[in-house]
Amino acid sequence: LESSNLSEKDILVLRLDLTDRSSHEAATNSVLKHFGKIDVLVNNGGRSQRSLFVDTNLDVYSAIMELNYLGTISLTKHVLNHMIQRKKGKIVTVSSVMGIMGAPLASGYCASKHALQGFFNSLRTELTDYPEISIINICPGPVQSKIIQNVFTENLGKAIESSGDQSHKMPTDRCVRLTLVSIANDLKEAWVSDNPYLAVCYLWQYAPTWAWWLMNKMGKKRIQNFKSGVVRLFLFRL
């Protein structure tokens, strides 16, 4: 719908804490009470990470999994119950290219995205009796957003000092448009990224030995930059 066609009753904004799983059922019921149905759930909550595993408190890993993984599947569970009753709906999860590959300084983030990939790919196989319920995984590469300003570091509560330049990342509106195209076409998985990140996804998928070699080379430089205070938030620069 065009924004000019929307009325006040067509919009409902609710505060939601993914880590407060006890609130997810009530939030779902509030949406159903207002609209009567849920056609699409877009799971797009989460935080990234920028720290070395050897320096990172395990509480950080627990927090990452609680937010990125458990919070997402908790909300999904309540919405899916409704979709199963209707035998129709779309569950869209914004994963990441980090759910396909591994990268230094983001081991917890990668783990949470791998967990989401495994969970939703498995859930899809449990819903074969409901062909009109789509499970769609979106895997963006670097996108212009505030995700870096809010990353986990080695300790809970410690903020990143600099978010670096974002001009080389995909513009937000392009990522959104490609995501909507993927949803409209019921793609099971979509890699929404520019090169060279997209090319690395193909390496991980089809030539993992080369991908491991490349990641070791680029990862070593990235870690050196990180330790010396040079801002390099991704493995490659265009």
UniProtKB/TrEMBL annotation:
<dbReference type="InterPro" id="IPR002347">
    <property type="entry name" value="SDR_fam"/>
</dbReference>
<dbReference type="InterPro" id="IPR020904">
    <property type="entry name" value="Sc_DH/Rdtase_CS"/>
</dbReference>
<dbReference type="InterPro" id="IPR053011">
    <property type="entry name" value="SDR_family_member_7"/>
</dbReference>
<dbReference type="InterPro" id="IPR036291">
    <property type="entry name" value="NAD(P)-bd_dom_sf"/>
</dbReference>
<dbReference type="GO" id="GO:0016491">
    <property type="term" value="F:oxidoreductase activity"/>
</dbReference>
<comment type="similarity">
    <text>Belongs to the short-chain dehydrogenases/reductases (SDR) family.</text>
</comment>
<dbReference type="Pfam" id="PF00106">
    <property type="entry name" value="adh_short"/>
</dbReference>
<protein>
    <submittedName>
        <fullName>DHRS7 reductase</fullName>
    </submittedName>
</protein>
<keyword id="KW-0560">Oxidoreductase</keyword>
